[in-house]
C-alpha cells in the first residue's frame, strides 16, 4: 500500500490531513504532512522528509504531494524523487488526496499517472442558474422567493 507525505506551505498539509480524517472517520495510516514555515531551511526540510519516507515506505513506495509548483516546498520535494520508490506530484488538493487514498493499492507509478490524468475532475464549475444533475425551478417573484426561504 502506497504511503503519502505532504510537503506544503504551513498549514496546508495539516489542514488537508484534518479534512481527510473527517472524510474517512479517523486518521489515515501512513499519511503524514510536513508543513513548511517561512524561511525554513530547505536542507532541514529535506532531511526531515527523508526520515519520514524511510519510516513510511513498506516496500510499495511513497507518493510525495506538494501544493505549489516552483515554490520552496515543491523544490524540496522534487529532490526526493526516486523512480519506483518515491514519486512527487505538485498541485495537491483535497479531491486529489482523497482519490489517492482510495486508490493507494495500485503500484506507485500507476497511482501517480492516474492522479495526474484525473486531476481536472476535482475542479468543477458550479453554475448558480443550472446546478449539475439537479432540477432547477426558478421562483417567479420576490414574494415567492421570500416564502421559499422561510
TrEMBL record:
<keyword id="KW-0598">Phosphotransferase system</keyword>
<keyword id="KW-0963">Cytoplasm</keyword>
<protein>
    <submittedName>
        <fullName>PTS sugar transporter subunit IIA</fullName>
    </submittedName>
</protein>
<keyword id="KW-0762">Sugar transport</keyword>
<feature type="domain" description="PTS EIIA type-4">
    <location>
        <begin position="1"/>
        <end position="123"/>
    </location>
</feature>
<dbReference type="InterPro" id="IPR051471">
    <property type="entry name" value="Bacterial_PTS_sugar_comp"/>
</dbReference>
<keyword id="KW-0808">Transferase</keyword>
<keyword id="KW-0418">Kinase</keyword>
<keyword id="KW-0813">Transport</keyword>
<dbReference type="Pfam" id="PF03610">
    <property type="entry name" value="EIIA-man"/>
</dbReference>
<dbReference type="InterPro" id="IPR004701">
    <property type="entry name" value="PTS_EIIA_man-typ"/>
</dbReference>
<dbReference type="InterPro" id="IPR033887">
    <property type="entry name" value="PTS_IIA_man"/>
</dbReference>
<dbReference type="InterPro" id="IPR036662">
    <property type="entry name" value="PTS_EIIA_man-typ_sf"/>
</dbReference>
Amino acid at each position: 500500500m502506497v504511503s503519502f507525505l505532504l510537503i506544503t506551505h504551513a498549514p496546508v498539509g495539516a489542514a488537508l490531513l484534518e479534512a481527510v480524517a473527517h472524510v474517512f472517520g479517523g486518521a489515515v495510516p501512513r499519511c503524514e504532512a510536513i508543513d513548511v514555515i517561512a524561511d525554513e531551511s530547505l536542507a532541514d526540510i529535506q532531511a526531515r522528509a527523508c526520515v519520514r519516507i524511510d519510516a513510511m515506505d513498506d516496500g510499495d513506495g511513497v507518493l510525495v504531494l506538494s501544493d505549489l509548483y516552483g515554490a520552496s516546498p515543491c523544490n524540496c520535494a522534487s529532490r526526493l524523487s526516486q523512480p519506483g520508490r518515491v514519486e512527487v506530484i505538485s498541485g495537491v488538493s483535497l479531491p486529489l488526496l482523497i482519490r489517492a487514498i482510495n486508490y493507494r493499492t495500485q503500484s506507485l507509478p500507476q497511482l501517480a499517472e492516474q492522479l495526474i490524468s484525473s486531476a481536472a475532475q476535482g475542479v468543477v464549475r458550479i453554475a448558480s442558474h443550472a446546478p449539475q444533475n439537479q432540477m432547477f425551478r426558478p421562483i417567479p417573484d420576490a414574494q415567492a422567493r421570500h416564502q421559499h426561504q422561510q
